[in-house]
Amino acid sequence: MKRLLLILTHLILAMLWLSGCKEQMSNDVVVQNKHFTVTADSVVEGDWIARVLSPTHIVSNYSPADTTSFTKDGIVCFRLAFNGHDNELPKHSYHYAAMGADTTIVAFEEGVRPSKNGDTKATKWHVKVDLRNMQEKLKTDGFYATPTGDTIYKEEFKGVWIAGNIPPLSWNFLELEENEELKLHESDTTGIYEITIPLNVHQQAIPYFTEWKIDKENVNYPTIKTSMPIIDALYNMSIDDIVNGLNSDGKPTSFPRRVNHTRMNYPIMLSLAYLNPKESMETLKSSVENGIITHKHKRSIWPINTDDISWAMAAWEIYSVTGDKKWLKWAYDVVKKTIDEEYEINGDIVTGLIHGGGQFAFSQGQFYPSWMEYKDIYETASLSSNVFFERAFEILNDMGDELGIDSDYGEMAQNLKDAINEALWNEQLHHYFQYTYVYASPVQSPVIDNFAQALSVLWNIASDDRAENLMMYTPINYYGVTVTSPHYESEDIINLSEVVTPMVQAFWNLAAAKTENEAMLRYGLGAMYRAQALQASLLALYEAILAVLQVTWQWCFAYTQE
Predict the structure, then answer these.
(1) d(CA 269, CA 316)
(2) What values do phi and psi take at 395, rounded to 5?
(3) End-to-end CA distance of the chain
(4) H or E, element range at 139
(5) In this structure, are strands 143-145 and 151-153 parallel, antiparallel, or unpaired?
(6) Half-sphere exposure of 509 (CA within 13 A, CB side)
(7) Can you give the three-state secondary structure of 414-480, one letter per residue?
(8) Quick check: 14 and 226 in contact, CB under 8 A?
(9) What is the rounded CA–CA span in Å between residue 553 and residue 154?
């Protein structure tokens, strides 16, 4: 219950100190940079303005870039994807086709952009690909090397997909394998694959609400009152999102279950365990089968997905709020059984590290070279996977203490922490490597995983002066901290504000507050306030409600001490 008292104290302090912050700020400016300004009741970014009219009403004239621009010339830009991976052409190389033309025949080399525009009214597009050479290689050699050097073995070949710039095509290779509508099928001629795609040439700009309004605050959840209307309104908007969340089947529910089980662990850790512990329990229970955290949503890349164990953090947060010993005992058994099984599969007794990457990493920016097969990815040791396991060991140890159970998990946590700091910390650049790869002689990925870095700070893995240094030296942009640094430059990214996610930003804000880095915290809070207020829409920021409250009071307290 100490945790609950701490949370309640934070909420009270937030209300008290926020009421005094208004007088401390010049012209009520919360955050200001060359791109946008956040005040106590507005967000201004060029001609775009969001105004908070009341704690239950926001209006905005924000309109995103016109997503129809890439179809105005009627040119389809596309690449093939063997086994659903981006492995047919080098980055920034494409095939092209004019919409409305005859069937497109694909050769395995970069195409030439048509000199004339296509028919922008065309709605059907037919593509044929000659894979006879590939099939012959699979038959005679047992494998096929794609033009990018990705090796596909005969027993692993699943087919060929297509990615591109006009819907239903997209550049989202992470989920392409699951999209059967974009998978080519074998024609009557052996080795010739084809597909007919209904192009969405009338796609409209991404819809955003220009106004958010509710009749009154929801008294079934905690309410807040501050002197900064923007915080009150965005909090109420997030509560509204929780209450009116949708199930995966589109039916209303009292709790947001629109994302997969693993992704729900994070909002429970951040806020939902406090805001609605009963529903949080039910959500976590739904992802347990036979006494173990289920992997049924993991497609074909398990067992290298190791962030399922984030379930343990969510379960511990619920106990910290409720003090429910029955829940604690059940959760302890689930976490222990899961840890014991996964550690046997993923643990490395030589390096002391954990193999593989997490589902969140795959979906949010932890990308791997195209030559890597699943077995290669399994041999990597990612920061996210190791941070999660280290924290899970600690939680098992703490759960055992509460239940009077002795174990070696505390020692395992310390050993893994030491291994992380030995293998993944870059002393010269002051950050952790995203992962190491090539098992025999580990190579360190130069990319920075900002999500895992934030967790390493919050969970005291970044010991000594590492926490302060990584917060100080990690690159950020005006729209917040990107999922990875450098961010993944996907073809459908419009600007940097679209590679910043609420969840990563929320954890990063908490880490900034813990290290007393006010500048970083200002960036983070401004980024979150800007995104939600300008778009006047429900951006799943329920994940960050408690994070915003917890860090805002710390920031205001530091500010009032100047």
Answers:
(1) 8
(2) -65, -40
(3) 33
(4) helix 132-140
(5) antiparallel
(6) 31
(7) HHHHHHHHHHCEECCCCEECCEEECCCCCEECCCEEHHHHHHHHHCCCCCCCHHHHHHHHCCCECCE
(8) yes
(9) 58
How far apart CA 562 and CA 550 sit, in angstroms, is: 20
| Cβ burial, residue 191 (10 Å; 0-12/13-18/19+) | middle
* 125: amino acid identity, one letter: W
Question: For the CA atoms of the chain, what is the radius of gyration?
Answer: 25
Distance of CA 228 to the CA centre of its chain: 29
CA 388 to chain centre: 15
CB of 45 closer than 8 Å to CB of 35 = yes
3-state SS class at 556: helix
User: How much of the chain is helix, strand and coil, in % rounded to 5?
Assistant: 45, 15, 40
Alpha carbon distance 43, 37 (integer Å)? 6
SS3 507: helix
Helices (H) and strands (E) in the chain, counts: 17, 24
Q: What tokens does 4 get?
A: 């609950």
Which residues on adjacent β-strands are paired with residue 127?
104, 195
Tokens matching residue 9 = 């104290």
Note down pLDDT in tens along the chain; length 562 residues: 434 333 333 343 334 334 444 344 335 788 888 889 999 999 999 888 999 999 999 999 887 644 443 456 778 888 899 988 888 887 668 888 888 777 788 877 667 777 777 666 667 889 999 999 899 999 999 999 888 777 888 888 889 999 988 888 887 776 788 788 999 999 888 889 999 988 765 555 445 557 888 999 988 888 888 888 998 898 888 888 777 753 334 343 444 443 445 567 888 888 888 888 998 899 899 889 899 988 654 444 556 566 788 999 999 999 999 999 999 999 999 999 999 988 988 899 888 999 887 555 554 445 676 667 777 888 888 899 999 999 999 999 999 999 999 999 999 999 999 999 999 999 988 999 988 887 667 788 888 889 999 999 999 999 879 999 999 888 777 788 888 877 544 433 334 445 677 778 888 988 988 998 888 888 888 888 888 888 776 544 444 444 454 444 444 444 444 4
CA distance 438 to 443: 6
Residue 151 contacts residue 371 (beta carbons within 8 Å):
yes
Q: In sequence order, what E strands does 94-235 have?
A: 95-98, 104-106, 124-130, 143-145, 151-153, 160-164, 185-186, 192-198, 211-213
